[in-house]
Amino acid sequence: MSTTNPNIAKGLEGIVFTESKLTFINGTEGILTHLGIPIQEWAEKSTFEELSFALLQARLPKADELAAFDAQLKANREIPGELLDIIAAYPKGIHPMQALRTAVSHLGLFDPQAEEITAEARYAIGVRMIAQFATIIAALGRTQEGKEPIAPRQDLTHAGNFLYMLNGTEPTPEQARLFDMALILHADHSMNASTFTAIATASTLSDMYSAITSAIGSLKGPLHGGANEAVMDMLDEIGTVENAVPYITAKLDNKEKIMGVGHRVYKFFDPRSRVLRDYAAKVAEQQGKSHYYQILETIEQAVVERLSSKGIYPNVDFYSGVVYSDLGIKKEYFTPIFALARISGWVASVNEYTANNRLLRPTAEYIGPVDQHYVDIQNR
Questions:
Q1: Of the candidates 33, 51, 14, the residue with the CA atom closest to the CA atom of residue 158
Q2: Which residue in 70, 111, 317, 326 is the catalytic one?
Q3: Rounded Cα gap, residues 237 and 249, in angstroms
Q4: pLDDT in tens, the chain (380 residues)
Q5: What are the catalytic residues (predicted)?
């Protein structure tokens, strides 16, 4: 039987399976909006807390609503002491996403509401998870280094509190704002693999912890998360600005992939990469850490000259790894940071889809043998 049926959408590309009010992407023109508002405006004018509310409620909050939501997040930052003990007992050197997946699954065991699947329960659990992801990831980072976890503070923003819990020092306002912007840029991106995975799990009427644990497992794959870590490896391999063009030229001549370049959706500049590049470069210059950015800018110019005609441009991962590195985050934790931001989009998408739920049940075209009969094992 033929395996080239033109009606089969490999990777589900181009398949529309639901409607959403949350995120719109025009990959040809490099447009990304949440609730119709350009990502550039969210990054410049908003906060991760406000965007999280907006995604969960599909509308902008009023001042008192945002204050109440922020207070709710702060009130839920702590995680059970038993979970901290479990995290501390994880083997050293394990994959951080493996640890995060397991910790989030453990978190559900301590939540008396975990098995409830009403809209109200999913929302309440989702808010707690948005708050607690930061505490879990920071605790994982510290205990893997043999350090004691640091308790969350109530007087810091979501972004600032995470950096404090991870590094043990209060970040500067500029550092907290830069990380806040990075979280905004990664909070939601329509029907990516991990969001689709979360929805698929939730569509069976499974619980929110199962849905989000599924999403983490999907994000763990290097074709989804992890590209920014690979960018840092590439930068270390290049070493100097002078080596950048020869290195990239050789890669392109050999038809090798350039880390952080190209996107399944965008055929123009990923708008998130533009925001992150411009803001992060200023912060790096202020801190005397512009070396990596000079290499990246050189790579970008070379890539655009060679690949723009094919619709291949740098994506958000191209610059995000350097931002995280500047903020004291080790590269093996870049993908958990992705999850720290994307949890808002995961929860919002699960809630939106299950409000009018239908079990996801695609089909596959059978291409195996036909008209066969069972052969006894002694005759095979």
A1: 51
A2: 317
A3: 14
A4: 445 788 888 888 888 999 999 999 998 888 999 999 999 999 999 999 999 999 999 999 999 999 999 999 999 999 999 999 999 999 999 999 999 999 999 999 999 999 999 999 999 999 999 999 999 999 999 999 999 999 999 999 999 999 999 999 999 998 999 999 999 999 999 999 999 999 999 999 999 999 999 999 999 988 888 778 888 889 999 999 999 999 999 999 998 888 888 887 888 888 898 888 887 677 667 666 667 888 888 998 898 888 888 888 888 888 888 888 888 899 999 999 999 999 999 999 999 999 999 999 999 999 999 999 999 999 99
A5: 263, 317
Cβ partners under 8 Å of residue 257, min gap 6: 251
Same domain, 42 and 180: yes
d(CA 233, CA 222): 14
Last residue of a domain, one of 288, 311, 326: 326
One domain, residues 172 and 95: yes
Residues 162 and 235 in one domain: no
| Cβ proximity of 102 and 216 under 8 Å | no
Are 74 and 147 contained in the same domain? Answer: yes
| Catalytic residue chosen out of the listed positions 106, 158, 263, 326 | 263
How many CA atoms lie within 13 Å of 158's alpha carbon, on the beta-carbon side? 33
Q: Is position 5 within any domain?
A: no
In a domain, 11, yes or no: no
Task: Determine if residue 168 is left, alpha or beta; phi over 0 gives left, psi from -120 to 50 gives alpha, anything else beta.
Answer: left
For 311, left (φ over 0), alpha (ψ -120 to 50), or beta? Answer: left
Same domain, 52 and 191: yes
Domain containing 273: what range? 227-326
CATH code at 316?
Answer: 1.10.230.10
Q: Which residue has the tokens 């005397």?
A: 288
Same domain, 253 and 127: no
Same domain, 179 and 126: yes
**Prediction pTM value:** 0.92
Residue 10 CB partners (closer than 8 Å, separation 6+): none
263 is catalytic: yes
114 and 257 in a common domain: no
- Report the chain's terminal Cα–Cα distance, integer Å: 24
Number of domains in the chain: 2
